Amino acid sequence: MKTDSPTAVELVEATKIFRTKKTFFGRSGNQVTALDKVSFSIRQGEIFGLVGESGSGKTTAGRLIVKLDEPDSGKVLVDGENLSEIRGHKMKGFRRRIQMIFQDPYQSLNPYLSVYQTVCEPVVIHRLAAPQKRLETVVSALSQVGLTPPEDYLFRYPHQLSGGQRQRVAIARSTVLNPEIIVADEPTSMLDASISIQIFNILVRLKQNLNATFLFITHSLAAALYLCDRIAVIRKGKIVEMGPAKAVIRKPEHPYTQELIRSQPLFRRKTEEGKFFRPWENDATLS
Amino acid sequence: MALLEAEHLSIGYQTRKGLLRAVEDVSFSLEPGGSLGFVGESGCGKTTIGMALMGLLPTNGSIVGGELRFKGQNLVGISDERLRKLRWKKIAMIFQAAMNALNPIQRVGDQIVEAIRLHEPEVSAIQAAERVRSLFSLVDLDPERSRDYPHQFSGGMKQRAIIAMALACRPDVIIADEPTTALDVIVQAQILAEIRRVQKEMDVAVLFISHDIAVVAEVCRHIAVMYAGQIVEQGTRKEVFETPAHPYTRALLDAYLTIEEEDATLPQAMNGESPNLVAPPKGCRFYDRCPHADGQCRQEPSAWVSLSPTHKVLCYGPRP
Questions:
Q1: Average pLDDT across chain A, whole number
Q2: Where are the alpha helices (DSSP H) in chain A?
Q3: Closest Cα to residue B7, out of B49, B55, B47, B45?
Q4: What domain range is A268 assigned to?
Q5: Contacts of residue A196 in chain B, CB cutoff 8 Å?
Q6: Where residue A259 sits, what CATH number does that domain have?
Q7: DSSP states of B120-154 as a string?
Q8: Is residue A124 situated within a structural domain?
Q9: In-domain check, residue A166
Q10: Contact A286/B219, CB-based, under 8 Å?
């Protein structure tokens, strides 16, 4: 990634407030500021990480970029165009270019659709391939995410797949459109460590093949370090620190980032002298 | 005598496709006041072992072989009546989703009082409430908050309340099933420190179940690595994490991402997925995914190899 790449996505002072409804007895609703004047920009072709704990607003930011939610104030710009001003037919074009991979593959796939139907649906909607070419398109999308041989998976339903396979199908469903921007919202938080690595490897390969821009939303600093070019640490709707992933993690400046790093498990961490910490060296702390 | 002991324990679930052998020929023991961590990926059988210990297997699940002993008493086939006396009083459990383990319409303190008085009827309500207050201080919760409802607690506070509840009857052993999985990393660090401290102060044995090697490495003296229903490696945490012998243990360690890595390039993933346990493979269950597998591994089940008095591995060709 070159640092002078043009900006693909930009959030300008985006604010999103969720209000709970007034109750029947007239108690006024509460409001939660999920995003508070958040600004960041993602360069073309990079993986930008948004790191935060639950409730920090990281998912909300992702949803604004794919226009599943509208900001209450501020702007979301994609290739310089304000998303909230795009409507109708033009928006459909944008939807093809911006895709999202959701957190939970157990909920994001329709249980009544086979793998073929799931991955083919966006192809039909966006008229990407002639009917006789659809099968070919789906098969190639499936093999790109490592579901091989693809023919074995075409007519399976989500309940016949493991969690890792489901997430691969969900990835194929979004990448079959050759999107330019992909928002991946904690794509591995429901998966085992070894399966997560498989998914991460697929994402990195896709980034190279599609030359796409990624927003990678995660709670894991370690995953962000391995995958992302730059990261932003978000807390309670505000970005507290932003920079190249390595720099932020090696030399955190904000107290919150420092606390996040201190709270990482000691396993395979280094002590101040630069040696790997070995929890078993002080067995006395255990009974 | 070991506090908790399993010998050749097998547990199966009756499914439409036949008996799913979720736990196969598992042996382990836990000393009074000791700590043992089960680590493995989803579906490896670790939660099933915890549920069997509590007598909480679902109706289609049952112990199909072996023995499970608590203080020398076999828990297999024990009457519900006698099991109820052990459960919570002697063996308590911290469940996976603390958020859902509390009754939303009862005050947190009252729920703990109820647990105490159910198992110790001789304790008066006032004494029980007093005990709740001291338990709350023990787990770093403000005793005044015992009159709150669960929704007034944060996730970490709920988990502390659950730990307090597990300790309420001064059990000999606590089974902690993924107690920090649903929590953020800062809260996780606090809860793990809490569990370590409580374990030491109350001298209670802990059987820890987690998919996260970092978590068990921090709180458990002994480690059992599980794969596809079997324990594949067992030893002290130093042995298992510094000189891992089973290829699966090594793969798990390789898949662990840390923020210390200098170049931070993604490790190569181990391919494939765990085998189907309705019809498990004839040979080694890790055969398909193992980089060192040979013909023998495919044909014959692996056998235990002792590497030290405390360290053993279920593999023919463990390489140092």
A1: 90
A2: 58-65, 88-97, 115-125, 134-144, 163-175, 193-210, 221-227, 245-250, 255-262
A3: B49
A4: 7-106+180-285
A5: 255
A6: 3.40.50.300
A7: -TTS-HHHHHHHHHHHHHHTT--GGGGGS-GGGS-
A8: no
A9: no
A10: yes
Q: Which of A54, A198, A223 is the closest to B184 by Cβ?
A: A54
How near does any CA of chain B get to the CA of A199, in Å? 9
**B101: helix, strand or coil:** helix
ω into A149 cis (within 30 of 0): yes
Quote the pLDDT of residue B320.
45
Asked whether the beta carbons of A193 and B256 are under 8 A apart, the reply is: yes
Domain ranges of chain B: 232-320
Each residue's pLDDT tens digit, B271-310? 788 888 888 888 999 998 888 888 888 888 888 999 999 9
Over pLDDT 70: what percentage of chain B?
A: 98
What residue type is assigned to position B53 of the chain? Answer: L
Instruction: Choose among B41, B188, B221: nearest Cβ to A283.
Output: B221
Nearest CA in chain A to B186: A263
Nearest-neighbour CA in chain B from A19: distance (Å): 19
Please, what's the largest Cα pairwise distance for chain A? 68
Residue A242: strand, helix, or coil = strand
Could you give the number of structural domains in chain A?
1
Is B33 within 8 Å of chain A by CB? Answer: yes
Amino acid at A73: S
A99-145: per-residue pLDDT in tens?
A: 999 998 989 999 999 999 999 999 999 999 999 999 999 999 999 99
Q: Which pLDDT does position B32 carry in this prediction? A: 93
Q: Give A223→chain B minimum CA distance, Å.
A: 7
pLDDT in tens, B72-92: 999 988 888 888 888 889 999
Which H helix or E strand runs over A18? strand A7-19
Nearest-Cα distance to chain B for A169, in Å, is 16
B207, B175 contact by CB (below 8 A): yes
Asked if B315 reaches chain A (Cβ–Cβ under 8 Å), the answer is no
Across the interface, of A193, A259, A270, the residue whose CB is closest to B252 is: A193
Q: Is A164 a member of any domain?
A: no
- pLDDT digits 0-9 by tens, B119-157: 999 999 999 999 999 999 988 899 999 999 999 998 889
Residues 6+ apart with CB under 8 A from A8: A42, A43, A44, A45, A78, A79, A180, A181, A213
Is A127 part of a structural domain of the chain?
no
Closest CA to A276 of B4, B66, B85, B214: B214
B188 to each of A260, A286, B16, B46, how far by Cα in Å? 11, 17, 39, 20
A contact test, residue of B218, B256, B259 with most A CBs within 10 A: B259
The size of the A-B interface in CB pairs under 8 A is 129
Q: What is the ipTM of this complex?
A: 0.83
